[in-house]
Amino acid sequence: MTTLLCSPSQANTAKLCRRLWGFRYLDKVRSAPTPGQAKGTKLHTIGENWLRDGEVPPDTDIGQRFLTGVHHLPQPSPDVLVEHEFLFEDGDVHWRGFIDCVDPTGDMITVIDHKSTKNFYWAKKPQDLKTDTQGIVYAKATMEKFKVDVVEARWVYYLMEGQPQSKKVSVILKKEHVDKQYQGLKILGEELLEIKKTTTTGLDIPVQYPNGGCRAFGGCDFGEVCAAKKKGQETMSDLLSRLKKMKDNGVDQGVQALHAAVNPPTTVEVKPAPKPAPKPEPVETMACDETESSTKRRGRPKGSKNRKKVEAPAPVAEVVVADTTGPSVESLEFDKAPAVDTLTLYIDCIPDNGATSVNKLLEQAAERAAAANEVDHYRLIPYGGGAGSLCAALKEIVESDDSLKGSWFATTHNQMHKDALPALEAMANSVVRGTR
Protein backbone atom coordinates (compact mmCIF):
# COMPACT_ATOMS: atom_id res chain seq x y z
CA MET A 1 0.00 0.00 0.00
CA THR A 2 1.31 3.43 -0.95
CA THR A 3 0.93 6.15 1.63
CA LEU A 4 1.92 9.81 1.66
CA LEU A 5 3.60 11.40 4.65
CA CYS A 6 2.65 15.04 4.18
CA SER A 7 3.49 18.22 6.08
CA PRO A 8 2.29 21.83 5.90
CA SER A 9 5.50 22.82 4.12
CA GLN A 10 4.94 20.07 1.52
CA ALA A 11 1.40 21.30 0.93
CA ASN A 12 2.59 24.89 0.52
CA THR A 13 5.25 23.79 -1.97
CA ALA A 14 2.61 21.89 -3.96
CA LYS A 15 0.31 24.91 -3.96
CA LEU A 16 3.15 26.96 -5.41
CA CYS A 17 3.98 24.42 -8.14
CA ARG A 18 3.22 20.69 -8.42
CA ARG A 19 6.43 20.05 -10.34
CA LEU A 20 8.50 21.83 -7.70
CA TRP A 21 6.88 19.51 -5.14
CA GLY A 22 7.91 16.57 -7.32
CA PHE A 23 11.51 17.72 -7.60
CA ARG A 24 11.76 18.09 -3.83
CA TYR A 25 9.78 15.09 -2.61
CA LEU A 26 10.02 12.55 -5.46
CA ASP A 27 13.48 13.33 -6.84
CA LYS A 28 14.50 14.42 -3.31
CA VAL A 29 16.53 17.44 -4.41
CA ARG A 30 16.84 19.95 -1.57
CA SER A 31 18.12 23.49 -1.64
CA ALA A 32 20.85 24.89 0.55
CA PRO A 33 19.49 27.24 3.24
CA THR A 34 19.73 30.95 2.56
CA PRO A 35 21.48 33.26 5.06
CA GLY A 36 18.05 34.44 6.22
CA GLN A 37 16.88 30.88 6.81
CA ALA A 38 20.08 30.14 8.74
CA LYS A 39 19.34 33.08 11.05
CA GLY A 40 15.80 31.83 11.48
CA THR A 41 17.09 28.41 12.48
CA LYS A 42 19.31 29.98 15.15
CA LEU A 43 16.38 31.98 16.50
CA HIS A 44 14.23 28.83 16.68
CA THR A 45 16.98 27.04 18.61
CA ILE A 46 17.17 29.91 21.10
CA GLY A 47 13.39 29.81 21.51
CA GLU A 48 13.42 26.05 21.97
CA ASN A 49 16.13 26.21 24.65
CA TRP A 50 14.31 28.97 26.52
CA LEU A 51 10.85 27.38 26.50
CA ARG A 52 12.05 23.84 27.21
CA ASP A 53 14.96 24.39 29.60
CA GLY A 54 14.67 27.99 30.74
CA GLU A 55 18.05 28.70 29.13
CA VAL A 56 18.67 32.43 29.05
CA PRO A 57 19.15 33.64 25.44
CA PRO A 58 22.75 34.47 24.55
CA ASP A 59 23.94 38.06 24.41
CA THR A 60 24.09 38.05 20.61
CA ASP A 61 22.22 39.93 17.92
CA ILE A 62 19.77 37.08 17.41
CA GLY A 63 19.47 36.53 21.16
CA GLN A 64 18.53 40.18 21.65
CA ARG A 65 15.96 39.93 18.88
CA PHE A 66 14.39 36.90 20.54
CA LEU A 67 14.20 38.77 23.85
CA THR A 68 11.83 41.33 22.36
CA GLY A 69 9.22 38.58 21.91
CA VAL A 70 9.53 36.86 25.31
CA HIS A 71 6.40 38.62 26.61
CA HIS A 72 4.40 36.96 23.80
CA LEU A 73 5.43 33.48 25.01
CA PRO A 74 4.53 31.33 28.02
CA GLN A 75 7.00 30.93 30.85
CA PRO A 76 9.21 27.81 30.62
CA SER A 77 7.35 24.90 32.20
CA PRO A 78 7.26 21.09 32.07
CA ASP A 79 3.65 21.47 30.91
CA VAL A 80 4.55 23.42 27.78
CA LEU A 81 5.14 21.22 24.74
CA VAL A 82 8.19 22.38 22.78
CA GLU A 83 8.94 21.18 19.23
CA HIS A 84 5.81 19.10 19.63
CA GLU A 85 5.54 16.32 17.07
CA PHE A 86 2.11 15.40 15.74
CA LEU A 87 0.88 12.73 13.37
CA PHE A 88 -2.69 12.10 12.29
CA GLU A 89 -3.85 9.79 9.55
CA ASP A 90 -6.54 10.61 7.00
CA GLY A 91 -6.83 7.46 4.94
CA ASP A 92 -3.55 6.92 3.12
CA VAL A 93 -2.47 10.54 3.66
CA HIS A 94 -0.62 10.94 6.95
CA TRP A 95 -0.06 14.51 8.17
CA ARG A 96 3.04 15.06 10.25
CA GLY A 97 4.87 18.07 11.62
CA PHE A 98 6.52 19.78 14.55
CA ILE A 99 4.86 22.69 16.33
CA ASP A 100 7.28 25.18 17.89
CA CYS A 101 5.20 25.41 21.06
CA VAL A 102 1.82 24.22 22.36
CA ASP A 103 0.76 25.92 25.58
CA PRO A 104 -2.07 24.06 27.35
CA THR A 105 -1.68 25.99 30.63
CA GLY A 106 -4.03 28.91 29.95
CA ASP A 107 -7.78 29.25 29.60
CA MET A 108 -7.41 28.30 25.95
CA ILE A 109 -4.81 26.01 24.35
CA THR A 110 -2.41 28.10 22.28
CA VAL A 111 -0.40 26.98 19.26
CA ILE A 112 2.70 29.16 18.85
CA ASP A 113 5.05 29.47 15.89
CA HIS A 114 8.24 31.57 15.74
CA LYS A 115 8.64 33.58 12.52
CA SER A 116 11.74 35.52 11.49
CA THR A 117 11.31 38.32 8.97
CA LYS A 118 13.28 41.18 7.45
CA ASN A 119 10.24 43.46 7.67
CA PHE A 120 6.84 43.36 9.36
CA TYR A 121 5.38 44.16 5.94
CA TRP A 122 5.52 40.41 5.27
CA ALA A 123 3.79 39.39 8.52
CA LYS A 124 0.48 37.65 8.06
CA LYS A 125 -2.77 39.22 9.20
CA PRO A 126 -5.25 37.37 11.45
CA GLN A 127 -7.50 36.79 8.43
CA ASP A 128 -4.51 35.17 6.69
CA LEU A 129 -4.06 32.75 9.60
CA LYS A 130 -7.68 31.65 9.18
CA THR A 131 -6.76 29.99 5.88
CA ASP A 132 -3.03 29.39 6.42
CA THR A 133 -2.03 25.78 5.72
CA GLN A 134 0.27 25.58 8.72
CA GLY A 135 -2.29 27.19 11.04
CA ILE A 136 -5.12 24.90 9.94
CA VAL A 137 -3.09 21.67 10.18
CA TYR A 138 -1.60 22.67 13.55
CA ALA A 139 -5.03 23.58 14.89
CA LYS A 140 -6.59 20.31 13.68
CA ALA A 141 -3.79 18.22 15.20
CA THR A 142 -4.04 20.08 18.52
CA MET A 143 -7.82 19.82 18.67
CA GLU A 144 -7.64 16.06 18.11
CA LYS A 145 -4.92 15.57 20.73
CA PHE A 146 -6.57 17.63 23.47
CA LYS A 147 -10.20 16.95 22.50
CA VAL A 148 -11.09 20.64 22.29
CA ASP A 149 -13.16 22.64 19.81
CA VAL A 150 -11.27 25.92 19.90
CA VAL A 151 -7.60 26.96 19.97
CA GLU A 152 -5.60 30.15 19.59
CA ALA A 153 -3.08 30.25 16.73
CA ARG A 154 -0.33 32.73 17.65
CA TRP A 155 2.48 33.63 15.27
CA VAL A 156 5.31 35.67 16.85
CA TYR A 157 7.33 37.64 14.31
CA TYR A 158 10.90 38.71 15.10
CA LEU A 159 12.47 41.50 13.07
CA MET A 160 15.87 40.30 11.83
CA GLU A 161 17.16 43.61 10.49
CA GLY A 162 17.35 47.06 12.06
CA GLN A 163 16.19 47.74 15.62
CA PRO A 164 15.15 44.49 17.36
CA GLN A 165 11.37 44.27 17.56
CA SER A 166 8.67 41.63 17.71
CA LYS A 167 5.04 41.44 16.75
CA LYS A 168 2.29 39.04 17.77
CA VAL A 169 -0.42 38.03 15.33
CA SER A 170 -3.13 35.73 16.65
CA VAL A 171 -6.55 34.40 15.78
CA ILE A 172 -9.09 32.17 17.51
CA LEU A 173 -9.88 29.08 15.42
CA LYS A 174 -13.01 27.01 15.96
CA LYS A 175 -13.36 23.37 15.00
CA GLU A 176 -16.14 23.96 12.47
CA HIS A 177 -13.99 26.48 10.61
CA VAL A 178 -10.86 24.32 10.80
CA ASP A 179 -12.69 21.25 9.48
CA LYS A 180 -14.10 23.27 6.58
CA GLN A 181 -10.68 24.68 5.64
CA TYR A 182 -9.08 21.25 5.98
CA GLN A 183 -11.29 19.82 3.21
CA GLY A 184 -9.24 21.69 0.61
CA LEU A 185 -6.02 20.30 2.11
CA LYS A 186 -7.54 16.83 2.13
CA ILE A 187 -8.18 17.08 -1.62
CA LEU A 188 -4.65 18.35 -2.19
CA GLY A 189 -3.19 15.50 -0.13
CA GLU A 190 -5.13 12.92 -2.13
CA GLU A 191 -3.90 14.49 -5.38
CA LEU A 192 -0.29 14.33 -4.21
CA LEU A 193 -0.79 10.71 -3.14
CA GLU A 194 -2.03 9.85 -6.64
CA ILE A 195 0.98 11.60 -8.19
CA LYS A 196 3.27 9.60 -5.92
CA LYS A 197 1.59 6.35 -7.00
CA THR A 198 1.95 7.06 -10.71
CA THR A 199 5.09 9.21 -10.98
CA THR A 200 8.70 8.84 -9.95
CA THR A 201 10.09 12.23 -10.99
CA GLY A 202 8.89 15.81 -11.03
CA LEU A 203 9.81 15.95 -14.73
CA ASP A 204 6.67 13.91 -15.51
CA ILE A 205 4.32 16.27 -13.67
CA PRO A 206 2.61 18.53 -16.25
CA VAL A 207 2.58 22.23 -15.34
CA GLN A 208 2.36 25.52 -17.17
CA TYR A 209 5.85 26.98 -17.58
CA PRO A 210 6.68 29.64 -16.69
CA ASN A 211 4.19 30.27 -13.89
CA GLY A 212 3.90 32.49 -10.84
CA GLY A 213 5.92 30.10 -8.70
CA CYS A 214 8.98 30.45 -10.93
CA ARG A 215 9.80 33.89 -9.45
CA ALA A 216 8.68 33.27 -5.88
CA PHE A 217 11.19 33.61 -3.04
CA GLY A 218 13.99 34.88 -5.26
CA GLY A 219 13.47 32.43 -8.12
CA CYS A 220 13.15 28.66 -8.46
CA ASP A 221 16.29 26.52 -8.38
CA PHE A 222 14.87 24.33 -11.16
CA GLY A 223 14.16 27.07 -13.71
CA GLU A 224 16.86 25.91 -16.13
CA VAL A 225 15.64 22.31 -15.95
CA CYS A 226 12.04 23.30 -16.75
CA ALA A 227 13.19 25.62 -19.53
CA ALA A 228 15.27 22.86 -21.13
CA LYS A 229 12.34 20.42 -20.89
CA LYS A 230 9.95 22.89 -22.51
CA LYS A 231 12.35 23.64 -25.39
CA GLY A 232 13.13 19.95 -25.89
CA GLN A 233 16.83 20.72 -25.79
CA GLU A 234 17.72 17.66 -23.73
CA THR A 235 16.55 14.06 -23.48
CA MET A 236 14.78 12.77 -20.40
CA SER A 237 17.99 10.95 -19.48
CA ASP A 238 19.94 14.22 -19.66
CA LEU A 239 17.37 16.00 -17.49
CA LEU A 240 17.40 13.21 -14.92
CA SER A 241 21.21 13.44 -14.85
CA ARG A 242 20.87 17.15 -14.11
CA LEU A 243 18.59 16.42 -11.18
CA LYS A 244 20.91 13.72 -9.86
CA LYS A 245 23.82 16.13 -9.97
CA MET A 246 21.79 18.73 -8.07
CA LYS A 247 20.87 16.07 -5.51
CA ASP A 248 24.48 14.90 -5.12
CA ASN A 249 25.62 18.50 -4.68
CA GLY A 250 23.01 18.87 -1.97
CA VAL A 251 24.31 15.79 -0.19
CA ASP A 252 27.83 17.22 -0.32
CA GLN A 253 26.52 20.43 1.26
CA GLY A 254 24.64 18.50 3.92
CA VAL A 255 21.22 19.86 2.99
CA GLN A 256 19.43 16.71 1.82
CA ALA A 257 18.33 15.36 5.17
CA LEU A 258 15.25 16.77 6.83
CA HIS A 259 16.24 17.83 10.33
CA ALA A 260 13.34 17.76 12.77
CA ALA A 261 14.26 16.97 16.35
CA VAL A 262 11.67 15.68 18.75
CA ASN A 263 11.99 17.25 22.17
CA PRO A 264 9.36 15.86 24.55
CA PRO A 265 8.73 17.84 27.72
CA THR A 266 10.94 16.85 30.63
CA THR A 267 11.37 17.97 34.19
CA VAL A 268 13.22 21.23 33.90
CA GLU A 269 14.81 23.65 36.25
CA VAL A 270 13.00 26.87 35.52
CA LYS A 271 15.48 29.70 35.71
CA PRO A 272 14.51 33.30 36.37
CA ALA A 273 13.04 34.97 33.33
CA PRO A 274 15.57 37.09 31.45
CA LYS A 275 15.02 40.79 31.54
CA PRO A 276 13.40 41.60 28.21
CA ALA A 277 14.85 44.30 26.03
CA PRO A 278 13.07 47.66 26.21
CA LYS A 279 9.67 47.32 24.62
CA PRO A 280 9.51 48.74 21.11
CA GLU A 281 6.95 51.20 19.94
CA PRO A 282 3.46 49.66 20.06
CA VAL A 283 2.96 47.31 17.14
CA GLU A 284 -0.46 46.53 15.81
CA THR A 285 -1.63 43.10 16.90
CA MET A 286 -5.06 41.68 16.32
CA ALA A 287 -6.83 38.65 17.64
CA CYS A 288 -10.01 36.65 17.22
CA ASP A 289 -12.21 37.87 14.37
CA GLU A 290 -10.95 41.43 14.09
CA THR A 291 -10.12 42.83 10.66
CA GLU A 292 -7.18 44.99 9.74
CA SER A 293 -6.41 48.16 11.62
CA SER A 294 -6.87 51.53 9.96
CA THR A 295 -3.10 52.03 10.18
CA LYS A 296 -1.95 51.20 6.67
CA ARG A 297 1.41 51.01 4.99
CA ARG A 298 2.35 53.39 2.23
CA GLY A 299 5.14 52.02 0.05
CA ARG A 300 8.05 50.10 1.54
CA PRO A 301 8.28 50.54 5.31
CA LYS A 302 10.99 52.79 6.66
CA GLY A 303 14.21 50.87 7.20
CA SER A 304 13.66 48.35 4.40
CA LYS A 305 17.05 47.33 3.03
CA ASN A 306 16.08 45.25 0.03
CA ARG A 307 16.55 48.05 -2.51
CA LYS A 308 19.40 50.35 -3.26
CA LYS A 309 19.26 53.77 -4.82
CA VAL A 310 21.22 54.49 -7.95
CA GLU A 311 21.54 57.54 -10.12
CA ALA A 312 19.25 57.69 -13.14
CA PRO A 313 20.61 58.83 -16.47
CA ALA A 314 18.39 61.88 -16.40
CA PRO A 315 17.95 64.32 -13.51
CA VAL A 316 14.17 64.15 -13.61
CA ALA A 317 13.81 60.75 -11.97
CA GLU A 318 15.09 58.75 -9.05
CA VAL A 319 15.68 55.08 -9.78
CA VAL A 320 15.20 52.55 -7.02
CA VAL A 321 16.32 49.04 -7.90
CA ALA A 322 14.76 46.11 -6.06
CA ASP A 323 16.35 42.73 -5.44
CA THR A 324 16.40 40.70 -8.64
CA THR A 325 16.77 37.03 -9.36
CA GLY A 326 19.63 37.73 -11.75
CA PRO A 327 22.65 40.05 -11.74
CA SER A 328 22.18 43.31 -9.84
CA VAL A 329 21.07 46.30 -11.86
CA GLU A 330 23.32 49.33 -11.56
CA SER A 331 21.47 51.67 -13.92
CA LEU A 332 18.49 51.91 -16.24
CA GLU A 333 18.57 53.32 -19.74
CA PHE A 334 15.29 55.03 -20.54
CA ASP A 335 15.64 54.47 -24.27
CA LYS A 336 15.72 50.69 -23.89
CA ALA A 337 12.72 48.56 -22.95
CA PRO A 338 13.26 46.28 -19.95
CA ALA A 339 13.26 42.52 -20.43
CA VAL A 340 9.76 41.20 -20.99
CA ASP A 341 10.05 38.64 -18.19
CA THR A 342 10.75 41.30 -15.55
CA LEU A 343 8.67 44.11 -14.12
CA THR A 344 9.72 47.74 -14.14
CA LEU A 345 7.32 49.99 -12.24
CA TYR A 346 7.24 53.70 -13.06
CA ILE A 347 5.66 55.91 -10.40
CA ASP A 348 4.58 59.43 -11.41
CA CYS A 349 6.57 59.18 -14.65
CA ILE A 350 6.44 57.34 -17.99
CA PRO A 351 9.44 56.30 -20.15
CA ASP A 352 9.79 57.55 -23.71
CA ASN A 353 9.03 54.09 -25.09
CA GLY A 354 5.77 53.89 -23.12
CA ALA A 355 4.33 51.78 -20.30
CA THR A 356 1.03 50.16 -19.40
CA SER A 357 -1.21 51.69 -16.75
CA VAL A 358 -1.98 49.50 -13.74
CA ASN A 359 -5.51 50.91 -13.63
CA LYS A 360 -7.42 48.04 -15.29
CA LEU A 361 -5.54 45.45 -13.27
CA LEU A 362 -6.28 47.34 -10.05
CA GLU A 363 -9.94 47.72 -10.96
CA GLN A 364 -10.14 43.93 -11.23
CA ALA A 365 -8.41 43.57 -7.85
CA ALA A 366 -10.70 46.19 -6.31
CA GLU A 367 -13.79 44.30 -7.49
CA ARG A 368 -12.43 41.06 -6.07
CA ALA A 369 -11.60 42.66 -2.71
CA ALA A 370 -15.04 44.27 -2.48
CA ALA A 371 -16.82 41.02 -3.35
CA ALA A 372 -14.78 39.03 -0.84
CA ASN A 373 -15.76 41.45 1.93
CA GLU A 374 -19.37 41.89 0.73
CA VAL A 375 -19.17 45.65 0.25
CA ASP A 376 -19.86 47.85 -2.78
CA HIS A 377 -16.34 49.28 -2.94
CA TYR A 378 -13.06 48.10 -1.45
CA ARG A 379 -12.60 51.41 0.39
CA LEU A 380 -15.76 50.58 2.38
CA ILE A 381 -14.15 47.53 4.01
CA PRO A 382 -14.37 48.13 7.79
CA TYR A 383 -11.55 49.18 10.07
CA GLY A 384 -9.45 50.64 7.27
CA GLY A 385 -8.92 47.23 5.71
CA GLY A 386 -9.48 48.42 2.14
CA ALA A 387 -5.89 49.01 1.07
CA GLY A 388 -4.63 45.73 2.53
CA SER A 389 -7.47 43.78 0.91
CA LEU A 390 -6.73 45.45 -2.43
CA CYS A 391 -3.06 44.46 -2.20
CA ALA A 392 -3.98 40.88 -1.26
CA ALA A 393 -6.42 40.61 -4.19
CA LEU A 394 -3.83 42.03 -6.59
CA LYS A 395 -1.26 39.50 -5.39
CA GLU A 396 -3.72 36.63 -5.99
CA ILE A 397 -4.47 37.84 -9.53
CA VAL A 398 -0.83 38.24 -10.49
CA GLU A 399 0.18 34.89 -8.98
CA SER A 400 -2.64 33.11 -10.83
CA ASP A 401 -1.65 34.24 -14.32
CA ASP A 402 1.73 35.97 -13.87
CA SER A 403 0.34 38.96 -15.78
CA LEU A 404 2.57 41.71 -14.41
CA LYS A 405 5.56 41.84 -16.78
CA GLY A 406 7.30 44.57 -18.76
CA SER A 407 6.85 48.31 -18.11
CA TRP A 408 3.90 49.53 -16.00
CA PHE A 409 3.13 52.89 -14.48
CA ALA A 410 1.12 54.14 -11.52
CA THR A 411 0.40 57.60 -10.16
CA THR A 412 0.17 58.79 -6.58
CA HIS A 413 -2.58 61.19 -7.68
CA ASN A 414 -4.94 58.18 -7.89
CA GLN A 415 -6.06 56.83 -4.49
CA MET A 416 -6.44 53.26 -5.77
CA HIS A 417 -2.92 53.37 -7.20
CA LYS A 418 -1.57 54.72 -3.89
CA ASP A 419 -3.33 51.96 -1.94
CA ALA A 420 -1.79 49.29 -4.17
CA LEU A 421 1.77 50.66 -4.18
CA PRO A 422 3.07 48.40 -1.36
CA ALA A 423 2.12 45.29 -3.36
CA LEU A 424 3.23 46.74 -6.70
CA GLU A 425 6.65 47.74 -5.39
CA ALA A 426 7.09 44.33 -3.74
CA MET A 427 6.49 42.62 -7.10
CA ALA A 428 8.72 44.93 -9.13
CA ASN A 429 12.25 44.07 -10.18
CA SER A 430 13.00 47.80 -10.45
CA VAL A 431 11.17 50.98 -9.55
CA VAL A 432 11.55 54.35 -11.26
CA ARG A 433 10.06 57.21 -9.30
CA GLY A 434 9.45 60.68 -10.76
CA THR A 435 10.39 63.77 -8.79
CA ARG A 436 8.64 67.12 -8.59
Number of helices: 12
User: Which consecutive residue ranges, at least 5 long each, have pLDDT under 50?
Assistant: 256-273, 277-339
Radius of gyration: 23 Å
Mean pLDDT: 81
Summarize the biggest pleated sheet: 6 strands, mixed
SSE series: EHHHHEEEHHEEHHHEEEEHHEHE
Q: Quote the CATH topology of the largest domain.
A: Lambda Exonuclease, Chain A
User: In CATH's first tier, which class of the largest domain applies?
Assistant: Alpha Beta
CATH architecture of the largest domain: Alpha-Beta Complex
Helical content stands at 25-40%
Question: What's the number of domains?
Answer: 2
Q: Proportion of β residues?
A: 15-25%
Cα shape: globular
- The computed structural class is alpha/beta
- For the termini, the CA-CA separation is 68 Å
**How many β-strand runs?**
12
Provide key terms for this protein.
alpha/beta, Lambda Exonuclease, Chain A, six-stranded mixed β-sheet, 12 helices
Task: Please tell me about this protein's structure.
- With 436 residues, the chain is an alpha/beta fold.
- The protein folds into two domains: 290 residues, Lambda Exonuclease, Chain A (Alpha-Beta Complex), CATH 3.90.320.10; 128 residues, no CATH class.
- It has twelve helices and twelve strands.
- Strands 1, 2, 3, 4, 5 and 6 form a six-stranded mixed beta sheet that branches. Strands 7-8-12-9-11-10 form a six-stranded mixed beta sheet, with helices on one face.
- A hairpin with a 6-residue loop joins strand 7 and strand 8.
- Helix 10 packs across helix 11 and helix 11 packs across helix 12.
- The chain is globular, with a radius of gyration of 23 Å.
- About 19% of the residues have low confidence.
